[in-house]
Amino acid sequence: MLNKIKITLQYILPKHAISRLVGKLAAAEAGWLTTKLITWFINAYKINMSEAKYTKASDFKTFNDFFTRELAEGARPINGDENSLCYPVDGAISQQGDIVEGQLIQAKGFDYSLVSLLGGKTETAEAFQGGKFSCIYLAPKDYHRIHMPMAATLREMIYIPGELFSVNPLTANNVPNLFSRNERVVTIFDTEHGAMAMVLVGATIVASIETTWAGTITPPAGKDIFRWQYPVDGVDAIRFNKGDEMGRFKLGSTVITTFAPNMVEFNPQAGAETVTRLGEHYADLLRLN
C-alpha cells in the first residue's frame, strides 16, 4: 500500500518545481546551516568521507559542493588494462545486457525504446542496434562525478526535455518507459572500437546535469530537443582518456551506457544489483587493435 502511494505521488507532484527549489537551496551558502545539513547527510547515509579530498562538513560552502565532492588522490584507481573498460561511476547496476530489437530492459515486465532514449532519431540509434547496454543507478551516498569507461572522442550531445520521476528501484519497477520519459543529456562518442553513448538521466530533485566541456546543461529545463555537433578531428576535437571526468549530477540519478554490436562483453560476475566502483573492471573489448 505504501509503495502504491509513493508511485501515485510521483505522478501528481510538481516534480520540476520541487527539483528547482531544492536546487536553489543546495546552491545556497548558508554558513552553519549548510554545515549542519551536510553533517546530517553524512551520518544518515553513512558516507565514507575518508575517500574524499576534503573530509569535513565545514570544508564545503554549499550542499552542491559537498554532493559533487572530489575524491582523494588514489581513492579510485583506474583499471590499466587497455583491453578492458572501467566503471564510469560509483553506484549499482539496475540492468544490463543485449539491446534486442531496439529495446532495453528497464525491469521485469518493462522494456523501453533505444530510439526514444537517444532522442527520437533512428539514425542516432542505428549504431547501437544489436549492441549492449548498461544502466547504473547512483544512490544519494555515492560519488556523483561521471568518468569515461574508455578513451573516446565526443561527436554529439543531445538535450532531451522530459519528466523528473525518481529513478530508484521502486520507480523503475513501476513506471513504464521511465528512462525515456525523464529529462536527460545524451552524449555520443567515437572510439577506436566502435560507437558508445552515455546517457545522463535526470530525476526528482536532481538540481543540475553538467558536462566538463559545456558546463550546466539543465536547468533551466527546455521544451525542445537541442543537439550539438562536435569535430572529431583536429585541434578542436574533444578527446578523453579512460577514467577522465566527463560530467556530474547535483543530487543523484542514473547513467545508461550503450555500445555498438560486437564491441564489448560485460564482466560475467556482474549483473543486476551489483555494486559498482569507478575504475574497476566493467567490460572487455571484443574489437581489439
Number of domains: 2
Number of helices: 8
- Beta-strand portion reads 25-35%
Rough shape? globular
Order of helices and strands: HHHHEEEEHHEEEHHEEEEEEEEEEE
Q: How would you describe this structure to a colleague?
A:
- The protein is α+β, with helices and mostly antiparallel strands and 289 residues long.
- The chain has 2 domains: 2-67, no CATH class; 84-285.
- Helices cover 20% and strands 32% of the residues.
- The protein contains 8 helices and 18 strands.
- Strands 2, 5, 7, 8, 9, 12, 13, 15 and 17 form a 9-stranded antiparallel β-sheet that branches.
- Strand 8 and strand 9 (194-201) form a beta hairpin.
- The longest helix has 13 residues, at 15-27.
- The radius of gyration is 18 Å and the shape is globular.
- The mean pLDDT is 89.
List the helices and strands and how they pair.
Layout: H1 2-12, H2 15-27, H3 32-44, H4 63-67, E1 84-86, E2 91-98, E3 103-107, E4 110-113, H5 114-117, H6 122-126, E5 132-138, E6 145-147, E7 152-160, H7 169-172, H8 178-181, E8 184-191, E9 194-201, E10 208-211, E11 215-218, E12 226-229, E13 239-240, E14 245-250, E15 253-259, E16 264-266, E17 275-276, E18 281-285
Antiparallel strand pairs: 1-18, 2-5, 2-17, 3-4, 5-15, 6-14, 7-8, 7-12, 7-13, 8-9, 9-15, 10-11, 10-14, 16-18
